[in-house]
């Protein structure tokens, strides 16, 4: 019974750590979707993505996200379309707030690390991203 209580305690204390503002800089760079978990609990894993997200965040907690397509030579194909966002902290939680001509939405940042980040949208779907590693064919 003690291992069960210890496991619950460790989960609760790690979940309460939260995200620091310094960790937000890890969002900069290229990311690919790893999985999506719906609000009903079903998960879809992604092993290969033809498009990846490039995220650039400034010191003022504003940034943009673009879809890009990697090439085998290490370059990327992109266009001028970007989703601009701002990050705000409310009650120890960071939110990515998006707004464009068509819609406005937000995502809760649940985890931000060097090689992974996870968000949850207003519908309760959770998106897990992993740092993109370019394909190296030598």
Automatic annotation (TrEMBL):
This is Lipocalin-like domain-containing protein. It comes from Imtechella halotolerans K1. The lineage of its organism: Bacteria, Pseudomonadati, Bacteroidota, Flavobacteriia, Flavobacteriales.
């Amino acid at each position: 019974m003690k291992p069960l209580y210890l496991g619950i305690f460790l989960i609760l204390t790690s979940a309460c750590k939260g995200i620091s503002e310094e960790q937000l800089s890890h969002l900069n760079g290229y990311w690919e979707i790893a999985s999506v978990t719906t609000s009903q609990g079903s998960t879809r894993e992604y092993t290969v993505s033809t498009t990846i997200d490039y995220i650039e965040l400034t010191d003022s907690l504003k940034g943009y996200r673009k879809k890009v397509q990697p090439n085998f030579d290490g370059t990327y194909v992109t266009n001028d379309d970007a989703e601009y966002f701002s990050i705000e902290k409310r009650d120890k939680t960071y939110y990515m707030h998006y707004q464009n001509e068509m819609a406005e939405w937000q995502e809760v940042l649940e985890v931000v690390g060097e090689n992974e980040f996870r968000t949850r949208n207003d519908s309760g779907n959770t998106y897990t991203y992993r740092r993109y590693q370019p394909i190296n064919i030598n």
